[in-house]
Amino acid sequence: MIELTSVEEARIFIQSPGFQPAAYRDIDLRPLTTLIEERNFGASLFLGCDLERSSISHLAAGGAFLIHDIEDFSFPIHRSTLYSPDELFQGFDPNQPDAYRQTRDYQIYLEYVQAGRQFSESIQVTLAQRLHDHSISEALDHKLKGRKVVAIMGGHGVERRSPEYFEVARLAQLLTQGGYLLVSGGGPGAMEATHVGAYFATRSCEELRKAILQMAVRPVDGKPNSEYADPDWLHRAWRMREAFPIPEGHETVCESIGIPTWTYGHEPPALFASHVAKYFANSVREDGLLTIANYGVVFAPGSAGTIQEIFQEACQNHYFVTEDRCSPMILMGKDYWQNTKPVWPLLQQLAENQMYGELLYLTDSVETIVRKIGSFRPELYVKPQG
Question: What's the predicted TM-score (pTM) here?
Answer without folding.
Answer: 0.94
